[in-house]
Amino acid sequence: MSKPLTCDVVVVGAGMVGAACALYAARTGLDVAVVDRGPVAGGTTGAGEGNLLVSDKEPGPELDLALLSGRLWADLAEEHAAAVEYEAKGGVVVASTPDGLAALETFATAQRAAGVLAEPVTADRLHDLEPHLAPGLAGAVHYPQDTQVMPALAAARLVRASGARLFTGHTVTEVLRARDGSVRGVRTDRGDLHAPAVVNAAGTWGREVAARAGVGLPVLPRRGFVLVTEPL
Ligand SMILES: Cc1cc2nc3c(=O)[nH]c(=O)nc-3n(C[C@H](O)[C@H](O)[C@H](O)COP(=O)(O)OP(=O)(O)OC[C@H]3O[C@@H](n4cnc5c(N)ncnc54)[C@H](O)[C@@H]3O)c2cc1C
What we know:
By secondary structure, this protein is an alpha/beta fold. It has helices spanning about 15-25, 60-85, 100-115, 125-130, 150-160, 205-210; strands at about 5, 10, 30-35, 50, 90-95, 120, 140-145, 145-150, 165-170, 170-175, 185-190, 190-195, 195-200. It is elongated and about 65 Å long. The structure holds flavin-adenine dinucleotide. The site of flavin-adenine dinucleotide has 32 residues, from helix 1 and strand 3.
């Protein structure tokens, strides 16, 4: 950036969250800029598995968000399914003991009341859904709403679909403020981006970006691993 750029909103972070924010902000007619210190999906998004699960969530705000997310992804899939490797394959949660199955069914009953599709599966039907399961399991619950995308592709596709201006390789070093404290954009190591709104989509680094606006945000990192294997 040779001179400051002006837009309606600056999204800090080109991961899955920043990409989605950029898309939906742009759809409301806002002029959006996305800035990331690395490439698109260079943060946690590039390491994630992309499961969009309702099966693992108990009734409450997180499940409500997951259900909303599932509906939004189904809409997006109408246009972008192949590009984001959207797979509406469903999920199966198995129980190895009768006690475990009873607990699973209690959990599923509460989920059903919150709008989740949760279908009981008897032991003799399990292998129809997943032929490679171990023998002797007690039963399962099938969750048709569980889906999966390829997160790095999904972030890239959504950023592109947003039409936002993209500044990779730009580190946000400061949140610009007016005298009255209102946000005026961000300073990067390669120039300023002026906007009346800044979205902190810096993921696990959200605490550092918030601190640059003088805000205490208790976001902490948590380690996760994906091990890619193949059937023996
Ligand atoms: C092994 C593993 C498996 C996972 N599986 C799943 C799953 O199946 N389903 C699921 O929903 N979630 C899963 N997750 C979690 C999911 O990947 C993350 O919650 C998600 O990717 C976070 O996206 P984000 O956009 O918030 O953050 P990020 O993808 O980390 O994006 C933040 C971006 O901000 C940028 N940034 C930070 N500081 C600055 C700065 N000062 N200036 C400019 N840019 C900056 C970073 O470079 C980064 O690109 C998994 C995570 C891991 C590690």
